[in-house]
Amino acid sequence: MAPTTRSRAAPVPSRATKRAAQDLSDEDSDNANAQEHKPATKRAKTTHDKANAKRAPPRRSTAQKTNPNITRGGLKALPTMPLDVLEEIFCTLDPASLVNISRTTKSFRQLLLSPAYEHVWREAFSRDETGIPQPPDGMRAKHWALLLFGGDTCEHCHKQNAPEILFYLRIRLCEACISSTLHRPSSTSFRGISIQQLIPAEFVEKVISERRTQYGYGRQCSLTCYAFGEKYHPFVAGQKAALAKGPDEELRYVEEHRDAFTARYVHAKMATKWQRDLLAAQKKERERRQREISDAKNARKREIEKRLEDLDYNTYDKKIMSGVWKLKGINIAQPLTDEEWKELWPAIRGVIDGNRAKKNSEAAAKRRDFRIRHVGSHYDRMLHDPSCVQPQEVQYFPRTNRCLEFEPLKSFVEEDAPDRYRLGWDDTTQLDLTLRQTILGMRQVQDEQYLKLYNLLLTGGYISKNTKQEKALSLAIAIFRLGRDWSNELRFGREAMSHDRKDYRQRYQSLYEDSPVTVSSEGVGAVRMLLGLLGMKHDSTIEDMDLADAHFVCVSCKPRSAWLDLKKAGESHRISDRHHVATREVFSWRRAVGHVHDEHKETAADVRIRLLTKREQAALEAKYHEKYKVTHTAPICFGCCHCHDYGDDASQHAQGRHDGLLSKRDVVKHLQKKHSIPTKKITENVDFWYHSCFSRGLLDSSITSFNLVED
């Protein structure tokens, strides 16, 4: 029912009757009224005896008990009160409460906004002691209250995005509607008087950019003036008309507007200050409430951490606690009870145990990666231990990045033992034992590969069955081609097992599967031809050929052109001093075999190679040309058989290029100085060794290359 008078003599509006709220105690009458509009449900006729009829349950109403017009809450009794009682109650409220009540129902809105209740709004403002701005002249108190406490709704687009009131304009607009509905004056002052003192105008602050700097949070803002177009244009027109009459007339016109607008300007200024203070107080209250909520959440968090620590969980480990605080029921501002803990504990335990397992797995993977990265240094250390591997044998063992292909080192590195070591190996005793066993396994693989090389020579008919393996692989005719058809690299005897820097050697174990090795028939023919030139036996060894130190030239090839510098003492080098001459390269026996294989593969049987003449041999030994300058370097391809610490004796050029290998001259000096071996007793493969990945050069490895000049 709508509000009525105490005598109930006044007529009740029909519209108010429809909106009248009812108490929950009137539920039965409501159900009865609902049944009048709903036809009765037909029921089948049945017979019952009196006993059963007495025990029959009462008939339940089929009407809905939910009434959408029922007002629940503390104000449900207000609509039934007489108007004079309501008026007395409303007169004791503040303006904000009146606005809130007027927004509850249409009946209250019509009642409070009616002209008869205008005095209620005025009394609410007159009794206020909190500093709320009084209604300005020319504006009703109810309209002023709705402007102050009507919410953040924009008066133009009706969206909840207008938190501030433009008191100089007496309107509430959002930022977008301010720009679209208001006018931007071209001038903000007239005769030194601000436009806000003359007409309704507002300076709106807009944020241009926000960013965080090293000095804190920075914000760049701008002030823009806005006014009503219907107020601004007539004022400007009058100002221009007064200016046309004279400056004094314009000044009088402006001062008249200022005097007439002073009261509104002062009131708007005071209201703006009130709004600024109110927003600051609200912000402070929000921050206080946020701190209070944060403190309550932190207290709940600390209680959870305490319970977890009692269960031997490390709550300081961020990885273990990751995701715990995002669980439902954790991050709330309420004290933790035992019942809540019983409900939360299964989910928390699942997350923590999962995080712990993940952390342990990551730690194990980290330890494994560390062992894989550092096992190479221990493997190199073992290779340089003379009690395990002789220096001349190192080149036949796999490189560091291939050592994990062999057992038992592979299984040992995969074994995780965090109780014995954290990352690497604190005690290398077990590691050294494993490395020694692995090196023994590598030697077995080498023996298997040597047997395959021997079988290649045997099945190809290059050796007889009576030739032993060790003897067969030392023969000069034991020449093998590495790689597939596109590869032309040759190796002699056991040197085929020497590791190199080629990319096609992917796996040491599968050397003959991924990179097949075959006997080079062209190379065998070339060696037999060289043996014939030297008058040596057909079963001469590789060492015999190296000791012979013979030099050859290819007659089948045409001379090659080369630029050589003329000898002119006392003159600077000029391009005009260079001559284009025909030369022939001098070959060692190894290089001669490679030349036949590379350049004359199709016509190897017809190739002609000869020894150097006495004159050519003399020029080679003198490293001299009569007319042209000769520069040369010594090949760096030797190492000491008695130690690994010979890198300091290498030349600066050798130290920077060949992993500390020495030239033959340097290795002889090293043997004389460090091991006290006389020069005449120094023997290859006993005192020093040759690395097959590099060229031995010419003249007992004293010169890398030499070209003969054709006459």
Beta strands, count = 16
Number of helices: 23
Beta-strand residue percentage: 5-15%
| Uncertain stretches | 1-38, 46-54, 61-66, 500-513, 569-576
Straight-line N-to-C gap? 134 Å
Q: If you average the pLDDT, what whole number results? A: 80
Helicity range: 40-55%
Biggest β-sheet: strands ordered side by side in the sheet:
6-5-7
Topology:
Layout: H1 14-18, H2 27-37, H3 50-55, H4 83-90, H5 95-102, H6 106-112, H7 118-126, H8 141-149, H9 175-181, E1 189-190, E2 193-194, E3 201-213, E4 216-227, H10 229-245, H11 247-310, H12 318-321, H13 338-383, H14 409-414, H15 429-459, H16 469-472, E5 479-481, E6 490-492, H17 511-514, E7 518-519, H18 521-534, H19 542-548, E8 551-554, E9 560-565, E10 578-585, E11 587-588, H20 589-599, E12 609-611, H21 614-622, E13 636-640, H22 652-657, E14 662-663, H23 664-674, E15 688-690, E16 707-709
Antiparallel strand pairs: 1-2, 3-4, 5-6, 5-7, 8-11, 8-12, 9-10, 10-16, 13-14, 13-15
